[in-house]
Amino acid sequence: MSTGALEEPVFKGRELALSALLALLVEGGILLLWVYAGAGSAHVAAAPVEGPKEIPIAVKPVVDETPLLKLGGKKKAKLPDMWKKQAPVQRFEETSAPSAKASKSPESIPSSKLTPLDASAPPPDAELAKQVDQQLTDAAPDAAPTVEGEGSPDGVKEGTEADPLKARAVSAYYGKLQGWFNARFRPPSEGAPCAELKKLGASVVVTVSGDRSVGGYSLVKPSGNSEFDARVRTMLDGAKGEQLPPPPPLYPDILGQSLPLRLTGQNVKCNDAPSAPSPPSPAPPSEPAPEPEQP
């Protein structure tokens, strides 16, 4: 055989086909074994989820025993006082009474004074003291109100609000409005002595619109100082259209259509600066000391 001839293949075509077929059969067998193992009894299945069971119960009606709201009268309930004065403890002074069973030795003589003949015996639970400074009496009852009807003992005769909480809220809100106008008012600081400027004051009534904005005004009682009254009018003219601070949420209707105010010069900063002290006069020159006499 010559060297140029082709070498024969190691495997024949029939052998290659048989090996491929055998490989497919092995792979298919493994696949069938997996399928059979999954579908057999050895397969672990998830436990079924049981749904909720309906259990019938007997419903027995129960009458609501909560008391209904009682219809109240015109008189409002009075809040309890924060502190009430308690009656003082009555103490009795320790005294000595003659007794047939007393010892005859000088050491047994009591140091307390003798009991008067007309004195009554103290209660069994009474507190005794060596000495009582003053005679204590029971606490006097609270004074009854002199004015009938609704109101507070701390109120005034001209008051119109019976609710103390609302009266306090109104007072605080009107103080806030007064401060709102005082922050915009600039009283004059010159033209008169400082003491007179601080005593000036003017009473005005401001009209308030529905949206709490400042409307017109009326100078009810001028101060008598033209410059001061002009400053009041200038401030009120500049405040027209501005909105006032809102009232408390619990009392949104306490702001009426008119608002009385009092503008004063109490906090004015006067320009009366004290004059600077004059410098001290120079001291006179000292005289020279006399020369000593020569011998």
Polypeptide structure, described:
It is a single chain. With 295 residues, the protein is of the alpha+beta class. It has a domain at 164-264: Fusion Protein Consisting Of Minor Coat Protein, Glycine Rich Linker, Tola, And A His Tag, Chain: A, Domain 2. Helices cover 22% and strands 10% of the residues. The protein has 4 helices and 5 strands, in the order αββααββαβ. The protein has helices spanning 13-39, 164-182, 194-199, 226-238, and strands spanning 91-93, 127-129, 201-208, 214-221, 258-264. Strands 4-3-5 form a 3-stranded antiparallel β-sheet, with helices on one face. The chain has a two-stranded parallel ribbon with strand order 1-2. β3 and β4 (214-221) form a beta hairpin. It is flat and about 150 Å long.
Keywords:
single chain, 295 residues, alpha+beta, Fusion Protein Consisting Of Minor Coat Protein, Glycine Rich Linker, Tola, And A His Tag, Chain: A, Domain 2, 3-stranded antiparallel β-sheet, two-stranded parallel ribbon, flat
